[in-house]
Design brief:
By secondary structure, this protein is an alpha+beta fold. The protein is built from 4 helices and 3 strands. The chain has a 3-stranded mixed sheet with strand order 1-2-3, covered by helices on one side. The longest helix has 21 residues. The mean pLDDT is about 90.
Length: about 100
């Protein structure tokens, strides 16, 4: 991964956290990672949600607001295009919890 990709990926994660903080209430949502392929056309934002019972509700709400999120990114970044956005729950958190229980 080039330095440019790393910086852009980090910027997208920070902006996602900023957007989520302003638009999601009633749950603690943390952006854990952003994955950006080499072509920079699609970003996958990984999140964790507390309480876990609200995971599906938060994910659904964010997916409904994808267009608004892309508009927000378009105002905040200066690139030729705004990448498509996919939001997923971070599978690493549950894996770490499972490993901790087993040890």
């Amino acid at each position: 991964m080039t330095r440019r990709q790393e910086r852009f990926q980090q910027l997208l994660a920070e902006l996602a956290a900023k957007y989520i903080e302003k638009n999601i209430e009633g749950s603690l949502v943390t952006v854990t990672n952003a994955f950006l392929p080499a072509d920079l056309k699609r970003v996958t934002i990984f999140i964790t949600v507390l309480p876990e019972t609200n995971e599906n509700l938060v994910l659904e709400t964010l997916r409904e607001k994808i267009k608004d999120f892309r508009l927000f990114l378009g105002r905040e970044i200066t690139t030729k295009f705004v990448p498509q956005i996919d939001i997923k729950l971070d599978p690493g958190k549950k894996t770490r919890e499972l490993i901790a229980k087993l040890t």
